[in-house]
Write a structure and sequence with these properties.
By secondary structure, the chain is mainly α. The protein folds into three domains: about 1-20 and about 40-145, Alpha Horseshoe (Serine Threonine Protein Phosphatase 5, Tetratricopeptide repeat); about 200-290 and about 485-520, Alpha Horseshoe (Serine Threonine Protein Phosphatase 5, Tetratricopeptide repeat); about 340-480, no CATH class. The chain has helices spanning about 1-20, 35-55, 60-70, 80-90, 95-110, 115-130, 130-140, 150-165, 170-175, 185-200, 205-215, 225-240, 245-250, 260-275, 280-290, 300-310, 315-340, 345-360, 375-380, 385-405, 410-475, 490-495. α10 packs antiparallel against α11 and α17 packs antiparallel against α21 (about 410-475). The termini are far apart.
């Protein structure tokens, strides 16, 4: 479709150029410097050649020629059109950031013939890049009534994202609902529409959307990303609605060999606690806190474990877990405070998260990551950081395309492009650094609050111990409820695998542990 539109535009340009070209005169050309009319003739000829290159699919050669023609004084009247075609040509070369700059120039000129088309192309380029700034700029210029039908799905989806981010959930849900089922944005739009309903505490409509998404992936493998996302969304919706038994049922459908499983297991544990299924909750902790997940930042899970022990009056185990929490996250809190006190430059924060990303990929960083890795790992999964890192990676990919193209490399276009990409990369690193700093500040505040919660929990533990001792002195022994009389066959017959934890973790056993402890409460 884009190639066809290029040919139409080029054909129109060639016709216009032919009309604009001055007729040749019979008298010989003077040997003195070219007259303005002769220069104009040369400019039109070069432009015609460039347009022929575009028509023949020689996009790299055409881009080099068009970039130089855009600076010629004798083509001042054609500059907006040249910039537009240059942008479209660069998009064919997958140089979306450089193309976007051409479209922004066209939009700023305000030429009615090309502004709308430039906005359309800018939205596509920004979407390919994942650049929210450019998207917001383009969308702000959009009049939906005049916009082509084929691009409206992108607009509705992106408008919905912006409105949801700004807390306008009802308007966001309306925008997402207008994305058509044939669009590649449809699944994402429906998922976000469900989130918008949940923001409004409308669990009924959210559940309808997520169940429909799940049903649409009926034949997909159980590890299908969209199917897993819908499963987790249904579980979370039931949890928000207070239907903990249904939430537990759906949390258990999340496959173990997916990235979402560990997070879903933690949320399942909360649902088990709210449903008073304490043994199930404690069984989950054996997997949550296994050595396979030691790099995960989950301080709340240790406090949750201590709360479950409090409910079943296992004070000795509770004391051990609280000690483990302080031993694990005390150094993390101190390390963060020291790092943030000593560093203010956003680039330093970017460098640390970049090193953490290298560690996550299995590469060896140039120096030690100074931010606690468990915290850095969780920040890498934050939506804003993830999107910005993807955008930065797209910039690097564009630079590689330019440097590896023998026609583009070493040209003025390459110099111009690399300057743009360098500035954008620099600004993006600073932006990512500021995001990381903001997330670290939140983590530090969160750890402070959790430490206060740990203090309250320990206080309740001491009160529980005192109450148990008082009853013991009074001769009221607390009854014990023991599970050891149930053998392996009992669990198998009831649909469970029986894996008592014995101090070793095996990957194929994670998720199958069953808690066999004693309940000491009345």
């Amino acid at each position: 479709m884009m190639k066809k539109s290029i040919l139409l535009i080029v054909s129109a340009f060639i016709s216009a150029s032919a009309l604009a070209a001055p007729k040749a005169k019979a008298r010989p050309m003077p040997k003195t410097p070219m007259s303005s009319s002769a220069q104009m003739g040369l400019g039109q000829k070069l432009l015609s050649e460039a347009l022929t290159m575009v028509r023949n699919g020689q996009y790299d050669q055409a881009a080099v020629r068009l970039q130089s023609l855009a600076r010629r004084n004798d083509l001042e009247k054609e500059r907006v059109q040249i910039k537009y075609i240059l942008g479209v040509t660069l998009m064919e070369l997958k140089l979306y950031q450089i193309a976007a700059f051409q479209f922004v120039d066209v939009i700023r000129k305000g030429d009615p013939k090309y502004t709308r088309q430039a906005i359309e192309k800018l939205i596509i380029a920004a979407d390919e890049l994942g650049d929210d700034t450019l998207l917001n700029y383009a969308i702000a210029k959009v009049s939906l009534q005049d916009f082509p039908e084929k691009y409206k799905d992108i607009i509705y989806y992106r408008l919905g994202e912006i409105k949801l981010k700004n807390g306008r959930a009802a308007e966001a849900a309306q925008s997402f609902s207008r994305v058509r089922p044939t669009s590649r944005y449809y699944d994402m739009a429906k998922f976000n529409q469900g989130l918008a309903y949940l923001e409004q505490k409308d669990t009924t409509h959210a559940l309808q959307i997520y169940q429909a998404l799940y049903a649409s992936r009926g034949r997909a493998p159980i590890t299908d990303v969209n199917k897993v996302s819908a499963t987790l969304a249904i579980a979370r919706t039931y949890y928000q609605a207070g239907d903990f038994d249904s939430a537990i049922e759906w949390y258990r459908k999340v496959p173990r060999d997916t990235e979402a499983w560990h997070e879903s297991l933690f949320e399942l544990t909360w649902a088990d606690l709210r449903a008073a299924k304490f043994r199930s909750a404690l069984s989950n902790f054996q997997s949550l806190h296994s050595s396979y997940y030691e790099d995960f930042y989950m301080p709340e899970s240790l406090l949750l474990r201590s709360i479950v022990y409090l409910y079943i009056c296992k004070y000795e185990e509770m004391d051990k877990v609280l000690d483990l929490y302080e031993k694990t996250y005390g150094p993390v809190r101190n390390s963060l405070a020291q790092f943030m006190r000593d560093n203010n430059d956003p680039v330093i924060y970017y460098n640390e998260i970049d090193k953490a990303a290298s560690v996550r990929r299995g590469e060896k960083p140039k120096s030690v990551v100074r931010i606690p890795y468990s915290v850095a790992r969780s920040i890498l999964d934050e939506g804003d950081v993830k999107r910005s890192l993807t955008y930065l990676r797209n910039l690097f990919n564009e630079k590689r395309r330019i440097d590896s193209n023998p026609i583009l490399a070493r040209t003025s276009l390459a110099v111009y492009a690399n300057k743009i990409l360098g500035n954008r990369a620099k600004n993006t690193r600073i932006s990512i650094g500021e995001m990381v700093k903001a997330h670290l500040l939140y983590v530090r505040t969160d750890l402070k609050d959790l430490y206060e919660q740990a203090g309250f929990i320990r206080y309740e533990m001491i009160n529980g111990k005192k109450e148990a001792l008082r009853k013991k002195i009074a001769g009221k022994q607390l009854p014990s409820q023991v599970d050891e009389d149930k053998n392996r066959n009992f669990y198998i017959q009831n649909g469970y695998e029986y894996w008592p934890f014995d101090g070793e973790y095996w990957l194929d056993e994670i998720g199958n542990y069953q808690y066999l402890g004693k309940q000491s409460c009345e």
